[in-house]
Design a protein that fits this description.
The chain is of the alpha/beta class and about 270 residues long. The chain contains twelve helices and ten strands. The chain has an eight-stranded mixed beta sheet with strand order 1-2-4-3-5-6-9-10, sandwiched between helices. A two-stranded antiparallel sheet has the order 7-8.
Length: about 270
């Protein structure tokens, strides 16, 4: 495993990890709200590494990346972050895999830099817009009830809310060690970052019909955060998208890593 420091948008220092075949086709993993690169451990340490170059980024405000006080509403900064990672590591037409919040970042990139330098896109339990009634309609009441606690500076309230979020993410019960590890990296994200991310008012749905590179939409049928209806309500505009509904939760790549990895490999090798 290689660790990199890359300067992203606005001179923000980003932490990026890399593993797999140095000359393999690259896959760039983008985590969700209050997570980090470790969320993709079951992909980075899988057979995908045999013939793919696997890269995972800590988004600004997360993991070991810088946590600036502001700038999270600026789509150009998110786009610059991804471009900086791709250029610094010389990723040749990567597949961008975004989980949950991740598709927002992917579409920020597409809006500002287009898709010519991409091989394909995967949305995993993802959303494409925030800050509107239509955006909120695809989020479950159980998740929305937790949101105020994400913004709290009270430690006990943060632990309670983020612990409940982890419970919603997976259809399989986490081991105690896994739960504590994930809770730890969730708590490392400052409350102001979570609030800034969820306070964005953004709608990227206008980009969806324009996508020409292959798109894989992966969703868990037991997702308790983003309703499966998101496939129809937001992503039906991608007429050529391939859809895979897994018997898993929001973190389907963790719940059933073997199946997820197999589907991602099939998608990658078809491009």
């Amino acid at each position: 495993m290689k660790h990199h420091r890359i300067t992203g948008g606005g001179n923000t220092s980003l932490h990026v990890v890399e593993t797999g075949a140095p000359t393999g086709r690259p896959i760039l993993f983008i985590h969700g709200l209050s997570q980090c690169w470790l969320q993709w451990a079951r992909q980075l340490n899988s057979h995908l590494a045999d013939d793919h170059r696997l890269v995972a980024v800590d988004l600004r405000g997360h993991g070991l990346s810088d946590k600036p006080p502001a700038g999270y509403a600026d789509a150009r900064l998110w786009a610059d972050d991804l471009r900086s990672v791709m250029e610094a590591l010389q990723l040749d037409h990567p597949i961008l895999c975004g989980w949950s919040y991740g598709p927002l970042v992917i579409l920020d990139y597409v809006r500002h830099y287009g898709e010519d330098n991409l091989r394909g896109i995967q949305f995993v339990g993802g959303v494409t817009k925030l800050g509107s009634e239509a955006a909120g309609a695809v989020l479950t009441p159980e998740f929305l009830k937790l949101v105020p606690g994400f913004f709290s500076t009270d430690v006990n309230e943060s632990v309670s809310s983020l612990g409940a979020l982890l419970h919603l993410c997976f259809s399989t019960e986490l081991q105690a060690e896994e739960h504590l590890l994930m809770l730890g990296w969730s708590l490392s994200v400052p409350p102001h970052v979570r609030q800034a991310l969820l306070s964005r008012s953004i709608d990227n749905d206008d980009l969806l019909p324009k996508l020409r590179k292959p798109v894989l939409i992966t969703h868990g049928s037991a997702d308790r955060i983003v309703k499966p209806e998101v496939i129809d309500q937001q992503m039906r505009r991608i007429s050529s998208a391939r859809v895979e509904v897994m018997p898993a939760g929001h973190g389907c790549f963790w719940d059933d890593a073997e199946r997820y990895n197999r589907q991602l490999r099939e998608f990658a090798t078809s491009l």
